[in-house]
Amino acid sequence: MTFWFFKKSKKNEAKYRLTTDIHSHILPSLDDGAKSLGESIAMLKAMQELGYEKIVATPHIMADVYKNTPAKIKKSLALLQKEAKLRGLKIKIEAAAEYYLDDGFLEHLESGDILTFGENYLLFESSFSHKPYYLEDMIFEIQANGYTPVFAHPERYRYISNPAKEYATLKNIGVLFQMNLNSLAGAYGKESKHKAEYLVNNGLVDFVGSDAHGLRHIEGLKEVRRLDIYNSIFKKNRVLNNLKG
Ligand SMILES: [Fe+2]
What we know:
It is built from 9 helices and 9 strands. The chain is α/β, with parallel strands linked by helices. It has one domain: Alpha-Beta Barrel (TIM Barrel). It has a 6-stranded parallel sheet. The chain has a 3-stranded parallel sheet with strand order 1-2-4, with helices on one face. About 35% of the residues are buried. The N terminus is likely disordered. Fe (ii) ion (FE2) binds next to loops. The site of fe (ii) ion has 5 residues, from loops.
């Protein structure tokens, strides 16, 4: 039995070495992610053990709920970097943000004080239930300000009722897609799982992310790596995760 299991694991072992995670809530006490510095360190350690070399922290920025600013995020990042170094962790930590498309978002854009990752990639999300009527306008504004819009977990929006058509529309206006790896294991329900499989099988994935809010999401990644579809992510898509620098 042991031998059978070993063979199965070998067969499903990923050939692509995913070394960078670009979506996580690992900074302590800024949103619904890590609640303490200790939890952040435990998460970092778990990511490092999975082979990650770099993690981009992306705290929520959402009017009235998570009033994070780039200054606040950078301060928290410096604190975590210092603690990680003290603990001897090698994994690199950077910070961007996950911007919620609300009324305050345009103000952030206009201020020019925006946190991005890689080559000016701006990670954004929207309501899960209702399509913002200004979605395309916001995307245009992101691009007009010199950023590339990256839609966080497009498989999770319930308002997307015709994935083939709606994903194509967003792609055609230059939106990149970041899929949550845990969606493939059904962590967010059946509908998200099916939409994630659609994204993978149709080459629509530009980035993958842990969207780790706690250790449970990092544990989930181990299961995802054993799925047959895991290798298809990298075979059928031009995944941009492993950023330079
Ligand atoms: Fe997130």
